[in-house]
Amino acid sequence: MMIFGWMLAPLRTVLAILHTALSSVVGLIAMALNEKNGEWVMWRVGRQLWSRPLLRGILGAPLDIQIHPEAQALADEKRGVVLVANHTSLLDINAAFAASPTPIVFLSKASIRKVPLLGKLNELAGTVFVERGNRASSEKAVNQLTQTLLHGRSVLVFPEGTRSEDGTLKPFKKGAFHLAQAAGAPIVPMHISGTWDRLNPGSALIKPSKKAIQVRIGAPVVGQDKTPAEMMTQAQLAVSTLSL
Q1: CA distances from 232 to 19, 99, 179, 181 (A)
Q2: Which of 4, 55, 103, 149 lies at a CB distance of 3.0 to 4.6 Å from 80, suitable for a disulfide?
């Protein structure tokens, strides 16, 4: 069966790309019709049209999602949070969309704007872009992040800064925690597994795997009175603990 799965890897990859392109077009049309459709696009298109069918249907991956009651309570109250997650695969974005109890946008490096279709869709739907080392960009990101959270959306951050080559958790960077502190946002840890096995940074094809894609969303990290460095350390420990 695994040999047959490897034979299907090119087809599975092409289908995933086509499905992503189609979902992006639908999202762009929705945003063109009404610029206030960002939340609908992130929830209905990002979660229900794109991510869950891609993971379950095209990849055949079981989803195992667990959300801490305190994190769920914030979602029920429509309070936006900063989700901080490990990052090992491009599929982490789909896993996060599929699991988050609230609509999410992303805190992303500015270069993502250049990605065809997805870059423009993210810009229109509310992704918070930051140009590293640019003070004006950081100040704009804080304002945008604050407004996003006030509207009950969550912002997803991958604080490692890039995908882990070997699947292990790498040291976090402080930038996202400066922004979270400035916005006064709760920080909620998230751990994703089962995506690296299917599409790691060195692979061009989506590989077969019998593992479930697991997403664990933990309790909010307490510490708005702490420095960004202390918040970063606390969040990294929380994400690491969720993997156990």
Answers
A1: 35, 23, 12, 11
A2: 149
- Do residues 234 and 158 lie in contact, with contact meaning Cβ atoms separated by under 8 Å? no
In this prediction the pTM is 0.88
Residues 6+ apart with CB under 8 A from 63: 52, 55, 56, 95, 98, 99, 212, 213, 215
pLDDT tens digits, one per residue of 32-53: 888 788 888 888 999 999 999 9
Helices (H), 8-117: 9-33, 38-40, 52, 69-76, 92-99
* Sequence-ordered list of residues with C-beta below 8 angstroms from that of 205, at least 6 positions apart, any chain: 9, 10, 12, 13, 199
Q: What is the dihedral of CA 108, 114, 117, 122, to 10 degrees?
A: 20
